[in-house]
Amino acid sequence: MNSNAEQTADIIHADVLVVGGGLVGGPMACALAEAGLTVAAVEMGDPNEALSAGFDGRASAVALSSRRLLEGIGIWDKVKSQAAPILDIRVSEGESRLFLHYDHREVGDEPLGHMVENRFIRRGTLERIREIPRIQLLAPIRITKLERGPGMVDAALADGRHIRAPLVVAADGRFSRLREDAGIRVTQWSYRQWGIVCTVAHDRPHQNVAHERFLPSGPFAILPLPGNRSSIVWTERDDLGKATMKLNDEDFAEELATRFGDFLGETEVVGPRWSYPLSLQYAHTSVAHRLALVGDAAHAMHPIAGQGLNMGWRDVAALAEVLADSRRLGLDLGAPDVLERYERWRRFDNTLMLAMTDALNRLFSNDVAPLRLARDTGLAIVNRIPPLKKVFMQHAMGVVGELPKLMRGESL
Amino acid sequence: MIRRDQLDTPLAEATTADPKQIAYFTSMAEEWWNPDGRFKTLHQLNPVRLKFICDRVCNHFDRNPEKHLPLDGLRVLDIGCGGGLLSEPLALLGADVVGIDATAKLVHVAGVHAAANYVNVDYRHALAEDLVGAGEQFDVIVNAEVIEHVANVDGFVESCCRLMKPGGIMVVATLNRTLKSLLFAKIVGEYVLRLLPKGTHDWKLFIRPHELAGKLRRHNVSMTEQVGVIYSPLTGSFRVGKDDSVNYMAVAVRPGQPKLELVDG
User: N or C: which end of chain B has fewer CB within 10 A?
Assistant: First the structure.
């Protein structure tokens, strides 16, 4: 043991070190604190900067189960005034009139989900973190060296302080450095598609209906935001996507209008537009020695079903539950058998969701005649068979599979 | 055959300072603490034992198991602590733990692991009767997987009882002496499935629950509960149940008011 460092440097002891303070890392810290654990949360960006619309203009569909998690960890209260419920989802294909109609009344009284702009989730999370004494937020600061020793993780911060914890949780995103340093391999493929995201204002109210249109170059989603505004997720072939992003505001608005239609009256693009290359990526394992991956660090998926962030939050709820149970027995939170429980729990769920999302996209992003027919008939059939439809809807709501307690609305 | 009631030769004092020795103990500790290693069965048993111990101890001392550090201030003795699989978690739950083992090497192994994990456990190379001689007493005695390795059971039980404070509690985990335990724990466990190193157990030393209760009663300690611990080969895990014909756990209490020293904070 290095007794010199012990005496001279400032050492922060925590039950868990969470690296990454974003949309998954923030709630992770809150969920662990809710479970009675002490948390050191390290984020290299300035959290206040991340709250502006210019930093992240996307909006997320918060599934019912995710909302319960956010409620349970005290974030939803701070977010709900900015959330628009989704009461109905209409799925249609191109020009076809056949469509699939998900009405929330078919599965209970709860909305299918809520649309919230990411910056409001970030703001609510940050406010919550600052309320919880068990969380020590260290940001903005870099970790200069992270050692996962036999009994303890030691992270050296740029200001010379050290954090010691039995477990480090990597919530550092798709390009996770922690994952890379641990030598965990990823499989990824690109869809050669771009996701274009923007917000539009429209004349008529959206009635809290979400629309998902499968156009030949990819899905086009209109998602209700508070007021007469909607969030657009527009998938385009990569060459067209790049060209679309280069259009001036007027031409862009026109391109958008041809896809959007006039059912909500006049539309106007508000604020900037963003684009992201779409790819699917998953880590071969979610755990390593004293390390657990959550969110995009473990799996990043096509936004077609709006499930990426919801899957990340499921990681959060599952890991928090596993750690809470282990702590009750005084077990080492970074022990291999503890982490194995998390890995087994998430593996099945994530694989299923990745496969489903991928298959959906492949099925819909093309214009081959027989496939079109199959799709149209398929959508119509699903619409007519209530039990099948219910399964799809419950999936969209995130209430299928072995749900962690926090996502069932129970406390840890 | 392991005789856990006989101290082996103590290691020279110098061992803890020698880097080579430390490396050796560290690798031994890694082996002990590897859930898929040689002590896999102990790891599989651990959550069940810990849950039982915590539950019963919290209940006995009127503690809330959901609270932070539920065992705070309780003085716990872990007899036959081995690599510290029970001592460390109990310490992490707030208990002041003394872990003793008759094998000097294991005491070092446990110490190295606890230090690396920043857990405070007082590990000693000692026998239960040594502590009796020193006049020590504890709120909680953990007696897990030891009694079946002891030659002089009566003497051992007496020592355990004398180490209990008035109002103290003891949790025993051991193997029943039935045909089924001979078949499962000894023959299947050691020879067929190789869950345990061969020669781990001498079936004749296994003790039946009512025999244990009788021996405890002689020292005015009453056995208040016994449960079976059942192995499921499919999931590779143990659970508590009615069938105590192979593994079982028992709770024993010494009459008196639990008296706790006041702890700061």
Answer: C
Question: Could you tell me if A149 lies within 8 Å of chain B, comparing CB atoms?
Answer: yes
Domain boundaries, position A164: 11-83+117-187+281-365
In chain A, the number of structural domains is: 1
- Please answer whether residues B41 and B229 qualify as being in contact, where contact means their C-beta atoms are separated by less than 8 angstroms: no
Split into its structural domains, chain B has a count of 1
CA dihedral over A364, A367, A372, A374, signed as positive or negative? negative
**Are B30 and A150 an interchain contact pair (Cβ–Cβ within 8 Å)?**
yes
Nearest to B133 by CA among B155, B157, B162: B162
Instruction: Note whether residue B259 is domain-resident.
Output: no
Residue A205 lies in a domain: no
For residues A212 and A191, give the distance between their C-alpha atoms in angstroms, rounded to a whole number: 19
Closest CA to A224 of A205, A203, A245: A205
Cβ-based contacts of A336 with chain B (< 8 Å): 34-36
What's the CA gap between B159 and B153, in Å, rounded?
Answer: 10
Instruction: Pull the structure tokens for residue B14.
Output: 């110098």
Length in residues, chain B: 265
Structural domain includes residue B258 = no
B36 touches chain A (CB under 8 A): yes
CB contact under 8 A, B118 and A152: yes
The secondary structure of B199-249 as a DSSP string is T---GGG---HHHHHHHHHTTT-EEEEEEEEEEETTTTEEEEES--SSEEE
Whether A50 is covered by a domain: the verdict is: yes
Structural domain contains residue B261: no
How far is residue B147's CA from residue B248's CA, in Å, rounded to a whole number? 12
Please give the full DSSP string across A144-161, using - where no structure is assigned. Answer: EEEEE-SS-EEEEETTS-
Question: Is residue B139 domain-resident?
Answer: yes
Q: Is the ipTM of this complex over 0.85?
A: no
Residue B8 maps to which CATH number? Answer: 3.40.50.150
Here the CATH number for the domain that contains residue A24 is 3.50.50.60
**Per residue of chain A (412 residues), what is the pLDDT tens digit?**
343 334 445 999 999 999 999 999 999 999 999 999 999 999 999 988 888 767 777 888 898 889 999 999 999 999 999 999 999 888 877 665 556 677 777 767 788 889 999 999 999 999 999 999 999 999 999 999 999 988 899 999 999 999 999 999 999 999 999 999 999 999 887 778 888 889 999 999 999 998 888 787 778 889 999 999 999 988 888 888 889 999 999 999 999 988 888 889 999 998 888 888 887 888 989 999 999 999 999 988 766 545 689 889 999 999 999 999 999 999 999 999 999 999 988 877 766 666 666 666 666 565 555 555 555 555 555 555 555 556 665 655 555 567 888 888 888 8
Full residue range of the structural domain in which residue B78 is found: 4-253
Q: In B, which residues are within 8 Å of A330 by CB distance?
A: 50, 54, 88-93
Check CB contact of B92 with chain A, cutoff 8 Å: yes
Task: Give dist(CA B105, CA B26) in Å, integer.
Answer: 11
A15 falls within a domain: yes
